[in-house]
Specification:
The chain has 14 helices and 11 strands. By secondary structure, it is an alpha+beta fold.
């Protein structure tokens, strides 16, 4: 789940926006694909009803003698019309396209006009051929002859049919063909309507329904997909723009944790972002002023203490007892060393030093060489050159303190340099007694000294490791004390490659 669930504010916002878009358009697509056939049929039925209404108005405006010829002229492959004495559509069915055509026609014709409609929109129902005007005439003549013979033959009038006999016979002759056409793709849906115009006058019309083709039905899907991708792109841009100030705040907080001299945040953007940036810059300036005030206070105390120490040193020279004189001068030297170390720690010179590209391998090799010339048991293993953007004086001071402690308390300092992923790793190994786990963190506390071999008699103010950690952390790295399997202590210094 951690790999799937986003771990950033931008990822969450993008996921929510895209999920909302997909949900909305996905549900729309599902609804469309479920009801697209009904929607297409309904639109086609409305269009068919409009055609019938237009032709009805054209026929009404024509003279009575020209109406029959006009109806024949208006016939087309998609619209067939005939005049009969009885309706071809006996009763309206319940297909929704029929209901749509019926309602539209009922609004156009006077109240009480008898209208019958039926539809065929499914190929499985079977196609139906609309009779021609000539077939209608032959059927009417045949019906009149049958009615004239009925009294002589003692026969009754033929029962009314839902269409002229000619159309029935024509449909029977083509029934096999209609059966074959039921499952083919070329089936043409249609709607039929019979409208009473007089006592024995019915206008019968058959209108083909123009349903959308399958290729055209996929257009909404393509448009929706393109629109979703466009919205996703805009969401990415908007999320990045909205979360950029948060990223800037995070980077500024990291810089502030390393040093107080970081560049202030730009006070731009929305009102909330400007207020937050202004508050952050105010906090940074107050912290910087607080540290400067503390440093100035310690510098003043150090300066003021040097004067009485100097006077006490002069007075100690006049002490006749040489043993007491030496003890007093030694205490004064310790006091002066502690004051200097405290002042250096308070100033935090490493944090104020500008970072620059430095060959860290050459820097470490030079420190090891200097300690070896001073009589220390040191060695170096690693690359001959490795560039890194650091504060060279601060790093040199930190590594010098660690190496000197390893030589003084562990007997030797074996230094190695390597690259571990996104970090540069410096290992300083010694062969001393090590440090108990409970005191490994206390070593970095100011003025803390270990007992035994690391007693006060060996010298030191207890600020060396504290100053070293502050210097390393000011460059984005850290120091860790580890026990070696073969005995001794390992000090691991890590520095980020992008320091």
């Amino acid at each position: 789940m951690k790999r799937v669930v986003p771990d950033s504010l931008g990822g969450w916002l993008f996921t929510v926006l895209v999920a909302a878009v997909i949900l909305i358009y996905g549900s729309s697509l599902i609804t469309y694909f479920i009801f697209r056939d009904q929607a297409a049929a309904a639109a086609a039925a409305s269009q068919a009803a409009d055609q019938l209404i237009v032709f009805k108005r054209v026929i009404e405006q024509a003279p009575m003698r020209d109406r029959l010829g006009l109806i024949q002229d208006l016939n087309s492959p998609g619209l067939r019309m005939v005049i009969t004495s009885r309706p071809l559509v006996q009763e309206s069915d319940e297909v929704f396209t029929s209901r749509i055509v019926y309602r539209r026609l009922a609004q156009e014709f006077p109240d009480g006009t008898e209208i019958h409609t039926d539809s065929r929109i499914d190929a499985t129902v079977g196609a139906e051929r609309f009779p021609t005007q000539e077939e209608v005439r032959r059927d009417l003549r045949r019906q009149r002859r049958d009615m004239q013979r009925a009294p002589r033959l003692g026969a009754t009038s033929p029962p009314p049919t839902d269409r002229p006999r000619a159309s029935v016979e024509a449909e029977r002759r083509t029934s096999d063909l209609d059966q074959a056409l039921r499952d083919i793709r070329g089936f043409q849906p249609f709607v039929r309507a019979s409208i009473r115009f007089g006592e024995n006058i019915w206008l019968n019309a058959r209108v083909d329904l123009d349903l959308t083709e399958a290729s055209e039905r996929n257009r909404p899907f393509l448009w929706t997909t393109a629109l979703t991708l466009l919205i996703a792109g805009l969401a990415i841009y908007a999320v990045r723009r909205a979360t950029k100030p948060v990223s800037l705040f995070a980077m500024a907080a990291e810089r502030l944790g390393i040093g107080l001299n970081a560049t202030p945040l730009p006070e731009t953007g929305t009102g909330e972002v400007r207020r937050a940036a202004r508050a952050f810059n105010t906090m940074q300036s107050r912290l910087k002023r607080f540290v400067q005030d503390r440093t100035q206070m310690l510098a003043a105390i150090s300066h003021d203490l040097r004067t009485p120490i100097t006077r006490m040193r002069l007075r100690a020279e006049f002490v006749e007892d040489s043993e007491q004189r030496d003890k007093m001068l030694s205490d004064l030297d310790d006091m002066e060393a502690m004051i200097s170390a405290t002042l250096a720690f308070a100033r935090d010179d490493a944090a104020n030093e500008p970072a620059m590209p430095t060959d860290i391998a050459a820097l470490i090799a030079r420190i090891v060489s200097d300690e070896a010339e001073a009589g220390g048991a040191t060695s170096y293993s690693g690359p001959e050159a490795m560039d890194l953007t650091i504060r060279p004086l601060g790093l040199k001071r930190a590594l010098t303190n660690i190496i000197e402690n390893a030589i003084k308390y562990g007997g030797c300092a074996d230094v190695s340099l390597s690259e571990a992923g996104e970090n540069i790793e410096v290992l300083i190994d010694d062969k001393g007694p090590g440090i108990p786990d409970a005191e490994k963190e206390q070593v970095f506390t100011p003025f803390f000294r270990l007992e035994g071999s690391r007693s006060r008699d060996t010298g030191g103010t207890g600020l060396g490791m504290t100053i070293a950690r502050n210097a390393i952390r000011s460059m984005g790295g850290d120091i860790e004390l580890l026990d070696r399997a073969e005995g001794g202590l390992r000090t691991r210094v890590t520095l980020p490659v992008q320091s």
